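May I ask for a single protein's sequence together with how it folds?
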Amino acid sequence: MNKEIEEAIVKSFFNKNKQQRVLFELFSPQKRRDALCRLNHNYSMMLRKEFMIQIPKSNLDRNEIERLLTEKGAGNICYVMSINEDIDGKEMALKTAIDQVYGYGLSSIISCINGKLAYFQAEQEYGAPPRFIIKRTL
């Protein structure tokens, strides 16, 4: 886990009134999962809507998601926050991260440019899960 990257993600993309609680939980081994699980059902209350761009259902192919992120400036390496413990808190290739998150079905954030560009996938309920690019002005 990289606290500096995670703090930038939270301060850039989470609603101000949720930031301190989320940071506390993320940095606590006993509560980390609570913070990430909160994104499953309540992401619209947790994340700043003004930066969220929903990916149209017609663009839900994992290669298309990678292309969209790359067009917006994503490099080859990213940082992942996920309920999936195998990839949570790790840096990895963008393609690998998308492949791991894509079929998982629970919430994940892939940070492509720290505090500026990320991919968020919410929990899958019916059909494909909601997927977003989160982008602040670069």
Q: What stands out?
A: The two ends are 25 Å apart (CA to CA). Residues 3-135 form one domain. The longest helix spans residues 32-46. The longest strand covers residues 77-82.
